[in-house]
Structures are given as C-alpha cells and as structure tokens.
C-alpha cells in the first residue's frame, strides 16, 4: 500500500493506494488511477478542477491562487495553479484538435451528384424601380 496526503474540499486526508508491479516497465502502478481521476498530485479531482477553473478565469496565476485561498481556505502556490492550468489546458486542446481532425477526416456519406442542366440558358429580370405620382396626376420613373 502506498500512503499519501490528499487535499480535498473538506481538508487533508490520508489516501491509501494499492500498488502493483509491472515487470515489463519495472515500476509500480495503481490500476484505477485513471478511473478515479488521480493524477499523482496531492489534490483531489474536485480541488484540481477548482484550481484549473480559477487559473483559467483569473487574470494571473497569483491572483487565482489568492482567490482559491479566499474561497476554499486551501493554500495553493501560484506555480501549482500555473502548472495544473497549463497541463489540463494542453490536454483539452489536444482533445479538441483530435476531434477536429476526426471530423475533417470523416468519410462522406453520399457521393456528390452532378446535375445536368435542362435549360441551356435562362434569364430572369426584375425591374426594381419605383413610380412616383406627380401633383398633376402623371407618373415619373425614378
């Protein structure tokens, strides 16, 4: 078991993660880390979400760190706000770019039809002029 402190909305708690050993990569890992949205930091997913939201909303990372402290009573360094915001922002941008590339590379559902012209030439004209009446009853074109 691997123990570490995790900062959550209600305070700090002890998190125990079972460790497994991967023989091919020769390191330990926690298989449910992705499902539980743990990124290895000392912040819970909910706190990380608030850090990134403030980092993206505020004008600067020091201001965001101060706002997080005022609103949640959690002391977070501005550099942490910076790192988390850039990291999550890069992930979101990569996801957006992948979705855009997939949309552009999608196969067309139906082939474009070439329509043959029935009439070789057609003209439609509309006279957009207005007719004004004069005092003596006549009309004058504008």
Sum up the structure in keywords.
142 residues, alpha+beta, two-stranded antiparallel ribbon, two-stranded antiparallel sheet, 3 helices, 37% helix
List the topology elements.
Layout: E1 2-8, E2 11-17, E3 20-22, E4 27-29, H1 45-57, H2 61-72, H3 78-104, E5 131-133, E6 139-141
Helix pairs in contact: 1-2, 1-3, 2-3
Brief summary:
With 142 residues, the protein is of the alpha+beta class. Helix content is 37%, strand content 18%.
Structural features, described:
The protein is of the alpha+beta class and 142 residues long. The chain has one domain (2-101). The chain contains three helices and six strands, in the order ββββαααββ. The chain has a two-stranded antiparallel sheet with strand order 1-2. Strand 5 (131-133) and strand 6 form a beta hairpin. Helix 1 crosses helix 2, helix 1 (45-57) crosses helix 3 (78-104) and helix 2 (61-72) crosses helix 3. The longest helix is centred in the middle third of the chain and has 27 residues, at 78-104. It is elongated, with a radius of gyration of 32 Å. The relative contact order is 0.08.
Q: In total, how many beta strands?
A: 6
Give the total of domains.
Answer: 1
The biggest beta sheet is recorded as: 2 strands, antiparallel
Mean pLDDT: 76
The end-to-end distance, rounded to whole angstroms, is 91 Å
- What Rg is obtained from the alpha carbons, in whole angstroms? 32 Å
Helix content: 25-40%
Globally, the shape reads elongated
**In what range is the share of β-strand residues?**
15-25%
Order of the strands making up the biggest sheet: 1-2
Order of helices and strands: EEEEHHHEE
Low-confidence stretches: none
How many DSSP helices?
A: 3
Helix-and-strand structural type: alpha+beta
């Amino acid at each position: 078991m691997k123990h570490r402190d995790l900062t959550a909305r209600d305070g700090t708690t002890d998190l125990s993660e079972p460790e497994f050993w991967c023989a091919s990569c020769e390191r330990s890992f926690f298989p449910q880390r992705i499902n539980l949205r743990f990124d290895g930091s000392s912040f819970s997913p909910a706190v990380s979400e608030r850090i990134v939201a403030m980092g993206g909303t505020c004008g600067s990372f020091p201001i965001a760190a101060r706002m997080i402290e005022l609103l949640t009573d959690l002391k977070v360094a501005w550099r942490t706000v910076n790192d988390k915001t850039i990291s999550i922002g890069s992930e979101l941008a990569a996801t957006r770019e992948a979705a855009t590339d997939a949309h552009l590379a999608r196969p067309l559902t139906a082939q474009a039809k070439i329509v043959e012209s029935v009439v070789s030439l057609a003209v439609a004209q509309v006279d957009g002029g207005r007719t004004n009446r004069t005092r003596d009853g006549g009309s004058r074109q504008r």
